[in-house]
Amino acid sequence: MNISSNPAPDASDPLEYFVLPRTVRRQVLACSALSDKKSAGDVFYLWIQLDPDGESPAIAPDNWLNVIDEAAAIGANWLVITLGDQERPPEHVDAMCHWAQDTHKMTVCLHSLESKLHPMVESLVVSLAQELTYLLVEPKHTHAFESLRERGVRVGLANPAPHDSDTACEFPYKMVFVDAGGNLYTCGLVAGEQEFFLGSVFNGSLEQITHNPQLPHSVAASKERTEDGCSGCPPLVAKYLCKEQHGVTD
User: Fold this and answer.
1) Distance in angstroms (rounded) separating the CA atoms of residues 72 and 26
2) Cα separation, 138 vs 160, whole angstroms
3) Are 236 and 219 in contact (CB under 8 A)?
4) Alpha-carbon distance 131 to 99, whole Å?
5) How far apart are CA 237 and CA 183, in angstroms?
6) Are 46 and 175 contacting, i.e. CB atoms less than 8 angstroms apart?
7) pLDDT tens for residues 23-33?
8) Does residue 145 carry a pLDDT above 60?
9) Which contiguous run of DSSP H or E holds residue 67?
10) 227: part of which helix (H) or strand (E)?
11) How far is CA 16 from CA 20, 24, 88, 126, in A?
12) Residue 17: pLDDT above 70?
């Protein structure tokens, strides 16, 4: 192999410079992890919620890619990224989405809480593999994304139906939820609540956390639920999208 024929990373782009030299090594590790699954299918969804106000400590892009690798290794094939403030470009989202699709063939959903996207995000959602991409928006904002729909982007509802509050929510056992600081919680509804804290991506593996019976993997029926709290919930969204496209409900 003539390594001199490989173009050097663009030093003007810190993210590219950091990620590209490790691409081959990471692909080998990712393939190895996937071929060594012990409990494939235990987890179906990875939900990453970026900081809405940009105040959480920044996590290096390689750490986010590690999270995606670990989630894929235990069965996750959907990635939902809840975006923060759209006045500024979200860090590392481009690398995260392309890595999830190109390496793990994940369905990627970008979840917007606002009625507009940062231009970088708008370009990203158009550039991704459309058969593996959705833009999730609030029902009251659907009209604001018609131009993207006309460009071939699949736009879906982030909160398609009110959750049944009479029963305990068992969806969390199927997903991994990570906030902008790398903290894991049972789900997005209870993010930040200590009783639902599962650990950190910097301490222990996702497989250990998801299989630890001492940790809370469900939300009680008595837990108050708001529409915003369940917005973007991957299992709810996936069920809705499958029903919309294929008539599949489970």
Assistant:
1) 13
2) 9
3) no
4) 15
5) 22
6) yes
7) 444 444 444 44
8) yes
9) helix 61-73
10) helix 227-230
11) 6, 14, 19, 20
12) no
